[in-house]
Amino acid sequence: MKKSVLTRYRVMAYVTAVMLLVLCTCMVFKYGFDMGEDVTFAVSQVHGFLYIIYLIFAFDLGSKAKWPFGKLLWVLLSGTIPLAAFFVERKVTRAVEPLVSTPEPAVAKA
């Protein structure tokens, strides 16, 4: 498996997790202090779009790593649980790094 598959999953896991925390903060302001309704709507739309990209990249990684359905489902859902994506990303990275192929060094022709 190429390293880029893992890298783009990791980037999207962090981006999705951060956006979910921002969304949770916006929800507190919207429902707790009755302010920021427009910001909450915009952030929720952005998070939803980014979550779809996260799902695509996580599914791609899971299919290439040949994960069982339960593990794939947990990784896919971790983008919906605040802070979970940070921990799941770390665990997934440790498990998948041995599967990542290292490029062979270029051999100079004489």
Automatic annotation (TrEMBL):
Q: Does the keyword Endoplasmic reticulum apply?
A: no
Q: Where are the transmembrane segments?
A: 12-33, 39-57, 69-88
Report the locations given in the UniProt record.
Cell membrane
Keywords of the record: Cell membrane, Membrane, Transmembrane, Transmembrane helix
Supply the InterPro entries for this chain.
DUF3817_TM
Give the way it sits in the membrane: Multi-pass membrane protein
Domain DUF3817: from-to ranges: 6-94
User: Record's Pfam families?
Assistant: DUF3817
Concerning NCBIfam families, the annotation shows: integ_memb_HG
Q: What is this protein called?
A: DUF3817 domain-containing protein
Q: Which organism is it from?
A: Streptomyces coerulescens
